[in-house]
Here is the input.
Amino acid sequence: KTGFGAAKVIGELMKNGILANINQQIDYETAQIIADDFGVKIRKKRGELSAEDVFTGNLEALLKEDDPAMLQPRPPIVVVMGHVDHGKTKLLDCIRETDVVSREAGGITQHIGAYQVEKNGKKITFLDTPGHEAFTAMRARGARVTDIAVLVVAADEGVKPQTVEALQHAQEAKVPIIVAINKIDKEDAQPDRVKGELGEYGLVPEEWGGKTIMAAVSALTGQGIPHLLEMILLTAEMENLRANPTREAVGTVIEANLSPNLGPIATVIVNTGTLHVTDNFVVGSLFGRVKVMKDYTGKTTASAGPSMPVLIAGMPITPQSGDILHVVNNEHIARQQALNVMTLREADLLKKRGVGEIISQISSGQLKQLKLVLKADTKGSLEALKQSIAQIKNENVGVKIILSGVGNITESDVMMAAASGGIVMGFHSVVSPQVKKIAERENIEVLNYTIIYNLLDDIKKILTGLLEPEIVENILGRAELKKIFLTEKKELIIGCKVVKWYIENKTKVRIFRGDQIVGEGLITSLKSFDKQAHEVSEGNECGIRYEGFLPLQEGDILESYKIEKRIRTL
Ligand code: GDP
Here is the structure.
């Protein structure tokens, strides 16, 4: 490629004291010296991304840049959070309307989950789904897409429970917070009271000697909005947000659904690189090719650079929000990578998180801090618990309350624990069946107590590794084998009917013949009506890809069960 023959290169190497033959590989640094001597510019080829990094959403590894000289400033990605009715939606609408760019383009903005505005010639990307729920759900999937959180607090109402919850979520994610004190047009607005209340949570305004930027705004009249945008840009500058627009794109899925005319579509925010139409990509365990790409105004676009949100079509099914998308050279690599991620995902589903895992990590010294989501029935008992927990002393491991509040244990609490690798403890709290189900799905144990002493005692035991998890077997249900199929790849597929409770994908099964146990196996894939299913309930038929004890017979009963580590509570 350089036009210099092998003899010349070998000669040049020799001059530099390196004896190399024609079949030898030389390292990059050496190559660079020789290339310099020839007056040739070379660039290091980026290594392939590992499936582990893609699967765990390890953006940091994915964004690793070989050449810092290629990095350029990129727009900040901003999420708006706060208590209900404090004006999050109104603020997002108001900001969108101040945008000259979209007005000139006809003012029609499509809802794709994010939009961009321009201020002083610089762009800002806003996530259009207000609230911390989506933010934390994505974080639980391993994605870190937001750069800045705008915490909306109504000046007439002040700090409310969800304000605190939102700021705890942002702080735990280490995302810088800008406070928007909203509704200052109202007569009973008391911005100074809000500032005072926020001080309790470590947010002190700059004018009072603190570090937090607080902007007074009215989403109704538009007052203060330009200033807020300037503050966002200032924060972005201080955060030194950079990306390389010339490389192949890496992005994060923030929304996905099925479009009647385009099929599966996803909104992707580009983290680095530039995404082009016709690019081959891997997203989660899927692969595809960008067939259609639109920006937030609904206009077709051929490419999208760093921090730009785009809607894309070209995947076989919808990915999950939080999935990482990355562009690869060709379809062959895409297929292989997707397969690797799928294998990891399946293996992970068989693995357990939860208290048992946390205890073993503490015991082995891997974990130095127990992260706790704490809920109690009253403010009094919550304060008492917090004080007692603060007094728990342990040489090796600390306790950090990452989220606390009064009331029921919610989905948001569970997702916070999932996102941070923590546990949820409740005192006289109610856990709805819906929340239990989510906790089960996320493998997060929710521990509820009626006696303070027991709660504190369990924390101490977790810290010292003394809390022995009980190994319990959880029988999910039974299915009767109706028919055996052998696919081309010599995989065993069996047709079954669920006869008791339900059976679940990726679980172990015991094979009963009559009342004798004849063997054990594993459900590696579960289908209901030709669609992949997580579980199939009583009375329904299903197709199972099975591995394990053979030969099976029609009429065999498969008992699906899970082995779980639980610590005794309740
Ligand atoms: P969200 O639940 O946080 O998304 O709150 P909304 O954006 O839906 O706003 C709740 C209510 O407050 C709506 O009736 C808004 O019109 C009103 N509102 C929002 N911002 C302002 C403001 O700056 N001033 C006044 N007076 N009302 C506002």
Remarks:
- DSSP finds 16 helices and 29 strands in the chain.
- Residues 331-349 form the longest helix (19 residues).
